[in-house]
Design a protein that fits this description.
Strand content: 5-15%
Number of helices: 8
Helix content: 25-40%
Shape: globular
Number of strands: 7
Strand order of the largest sheet: 1-7-6-2-5-3-4
Length: 270
């Protein structure tokens, strides 16, 4: 080993970090403060309709009757067919958004609705829910909506459904929605057919005449015990839709213009 190598100093070991400083004293420990996160709001179950207080519901109904009576002439037919209490299903045709308040307006007791899902996520979502509606996905078999309807009927509620599944742009009857019939067959509660016409003119013409006709309640049951078949559903839909058509003037009957004899004899003459 030469002299230059012997002259090199030994490497210095640095002091450990995080424990002692350069003066050998222990460094202060950092205190970590955990801030509690705000609790997330529980999601609203849209399939459980909002229950409007009875006093408020009746007040709104009274105001609606007064306002609609001022701007239109409302004629009621066969009101004696309305059951005195629920549960039952109101199956109506649909010409205008004014049908939403008009159809159940003269029904005693509060009602619940099935409304298209899109309405609950728009500007009027709060109002739709306030009126007692729950969502349904259109164009598919929405089993959750069907279960919600069944649960409401089991609670003794009055359930409003527009039989065609949507508003008629032509102001005539379109093909009935089978979901309505499935609910009727599963629940076994009476179906009250309701026909409304003239409501499409309420916002267009002051003093428009609106006629609401209530048919006789019908109870539907599966032919072969408790199992609901496609045949049961199709037959129930036809019966409900022809019942509605028979209470409408001919120009409103649309695809149900060919009334079978048992329905044609009940049709209005005026």
């Amino acid at each position: 080993m030469n002299q230059e190598q012997q002259a090199q100093p030994a490497p210095q070991t640095p002091p450990p970090t995080g424990t002692n400083g350069s003066d050998g004293q222990e460094a202060p420990q950092k205190t970590v403060v955990q801030v509690p996160l705000p609790k997330a709001k529980p999601e609203k179950n849209l399939y459980d309709p909002y229950v409007t207080p009875t006093v408020l519901y009746n007040a709104i109904r009274t105001v609606a009757i007064i306002l609609l009576s001022l701007v239109s002439r409302i004629k009621l037919r066969s009101r004696y067919n309305i059951p005195k209490e629920g549960p039952f299903i109101i199956a109506s045709n649909h010409l205008s958004w004014t049908d939403v308040p008009l159809v159940p307006l003269f029904i005693p007791g509060k009602v619940v609705y099935m409304a298209k899902e899109e309405l609950f996520h728009g500007k009027v979502g709060w109002l739709v829910r306030f009126l007692g509606a729950f969502p349904v996905k259109r164009g598919e078999a929405d089993r959750r909506a069907l279960r919600a309807a069944d649960e409401q009927l089991k609670k003794g509620k009055i359930f409003v459904i527009f039989a065609e599944g949507t508003r008629s742009r032509s102001h005539t009857l379109a093909k009935g929605n089978n979901g309505m019939s499935y609910i009727a067959l599963r629940s076994g509660v009476p179906v009250l057919p309701v026909a409304i016409h003239g409501s499409e003119n309420v916002l267009k013409k002051f003093g428009a005449k609106v006629t609401i006709t209530y048919g006789k309640p019908i109870v539907f049951t599966p032919k072969n015990g408790k199992k609901v078949t496609n045949e049961d559903i199709e037959e129930t839909t036809k019966t409900i839709m022809y019942s509605i058509a028979s209470m409408l003037p001919a120009q409103y009957r649309g695809v149900y213009s060919d009334l079978p004899p048992e329905f044609a004899e009940k049709a209005p003459r005026d």
